[in-house]
Amino acid sequence: MLINLSTTIALSCPACGCLEKEEINIFELPAGELKQLSCSCGAEKAALKRKENSQIQINYFCLHCNKAHKLTVSAQKFWRSKGLHPLSCRETGLNPGFFGPPPLVNEEIKKEKQDLELMAAELGFDDFKSPDVMLQSLDFIHDIAADGALSCECGSDEINIELFSDKIQLICNNCGSHLNIDAVNQNDLKNLRQLNKVQLHAIQGKPNNF
After folding, report:
1. What domain of life (predicted)?
2. Which residue, of 96, 119, 142, is where some domain finishes?
3. pLDDT digits (tens, 9 = 90+) for 30-82
4. Phi then psi for 199, rounded to 5 degrees?
């Protein structure tokens, strides 16, 4: 009987924002030693350690709050889980990554990619200076709104979106206030992902810049 003790970690890079995966086998993680996980851009994303008490410690850098988080799980949960487990940001409640069986991780990454491609087709992919950054920014704002963290100081949460080639403009339906969010490069995306809420300033008709 062959038992394959492995898991796959998918984690967004805190430097470039790219979501990449890496499969780890138990033999690559000797007890007491650290295994570093890096992005293809060269930035360090996480470190794993198999402890003597049959636990796995995961230290990971979060692109949402720009801080390091630590998660300790049982070896059973890490190697033999039948589902996906989030790597959460404790400050924002968002998930920069997840781990679990390779087929489920691949399926989730594929689903996220399909969602972005569908959004691109609906919006007109070629209209933006940086389509990938624009789509990821919209996806993040959608998550913020779904968590009830998109609103205006006037008290309204009825927010409209206008898209430009280089920015996203949020407009309050109640008071008309505007907020411009740049969406051109990875630095714009990184700045956006560090937020746990987006709030427009209640100034009638006066645009604000993020």
Report:
1. Bacteria
2. 119
3. 887 889 999 888 889 999 998 877 899 999 998 888 889 999 999 989 988 88
4. -130, 130
